[in-house]
Design brief:
- The protein has helices at residues 14-24, 40-49, 66-75, 91-99, 112-128; strands spanning 4-10, 31-37, 54-58, 82-86, 104-107.
- The protein has one domain (4-128): Response regulator (Rossmann fold), CATH 3.40.50.
- Helix content is 44%, strand content 22%.
- It has 129 residues and is an alpha/beta fold.
Length: 129
């Protein structure tokens, strides 16, 4: 399978955004275009202006949490699969994220292969709808 995946990486930590972008460019079988957002408001604006195949979203962000961003994304007319990452290991946060429609909730230190798998599953599920 070949194609171009457009992925939006949302994290207030510049080093984390860089690391995710670098790892996502190695997604097997795909050319990957990465866009980056430092804030939730930037992410929401970018999702209004462009179509993404997937959003990789940090939970803990200043201004609004990943859950708040997720709520706003799903309230908009755009439907985009979201993978949420968190350094906070609290099942209640993951449960709420799943209730809001997140595709996968992973620890920030999840192996790159797990993040790749989550993105591929989310994109395939979106295309199959």
């Amino acid at each position: 399978m070949t194609g171009v995946l457009r992925i939006l990486v949302v994290d207030d930590d510049e080093v984390a955004r860089y690391a995710h972008a670098r790892h996502l460019r190695s997604l097997p079988g795909f050319a990957v275009e990465i866009a980056e957002a430092e804030t939730g408001l930037d992410a929401l604006s970018m999702c209004e202006q462009a179509n993404y195949d997937c959003v990789l979203l940090d939970y803990s962000m200043p201004g609004m949490t990943g859950l708040e961003i997720l709520k706003r994304l799903h309230a908009s007319s755009r439907s985009v699969p979201v993978i949420m990452l968190s350094g906070i290991e609290q099942p209640a946060i993951a449960d709420e994220a799943y209730g809001l429609g997140v595709c996968t909730f992973l620890s920030k230190d999840a192996p790159v292969a797990d993040i790749h798998t989550a993105i591929l599953h989310a994109v395939v599920a979106q295309v199959s709808r």
